Each structure stands twice: as structure tokens, then as C-alpha cells.
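Sequence only, no structure available. Ideas?
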Amino acid sequence: MGKIKAKEFNRYRFAMFSVLLTIHIIVSFHRLAAGVVRNELMYAFGISNAGFANLSSTYFYVYMLMQIPSGILVDTFGPRWIIITGTFLAGIGSIVFGFANNIFWIFFGRLVVGLGVSVSFI
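Reply:
I predicted one. C-alpha cells follow.
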């Protein structure tokens, strides 16, 4: 590998920053997405306000529990692979959440999204 020129390095740095910024925007979207479709979810799956609060909090509980393991994973495997894996998991969780036909799959999808996005901040 040759030396990376300063201009190429700056371009690479800006590209990585842009990718991470986009991922962070998607994470913010995931935090709020369930609240936007609250009434539709409650009607379609027959859940109460408490059930919806549990559904919403599933994301945050997993996110909170994964903060220390996320740091360890990033130190062990490197940030690139952890971010790629986390983003992939969040996408899988979004698909599961979107195609859910019962309450289990909604909770599971939300849990997988929380697991996936928990590594993005680290």
C-alpha cells in the first residue's frame, strides 16, 4: 500500500463521516417511527396504551443494555464491521417489523432494530 495523499484522505474522511451521519439519521428515524404509526398499530394488533409503551420501550431497553458490549465489540472487531453488522441488523428488524402479522413479530422486529442501532453511537 502506498501513501495516502492528503486530498484523498480528506475525501475518504468526508465519505466515512457522511455514511455515519446518514446512519445516525436513520437511527433517529427508528426512534420515532413507532410513535408516528401508534394508532394504526394499536388498532391493527389490538394492543392497549400500555402494550404500545412496552413495544416502544423494547427498542430503548436493548439499546441501553448493549452500550457496554458495543464498546467491547468495536474494540475487538473494529468499527467498520460492527457498524455494517448493526446497520444490517436494523434493516432486518425493520423488515420484520413491517411485515409482522402478530404481536410477537412486532416486538421481535423492534428488538432487532434496537440491537442493530445500539452500535451506531459508539
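Residues 94 and 109 are 6 Å apart (CA to CA).
Hope that gets you unstuck.
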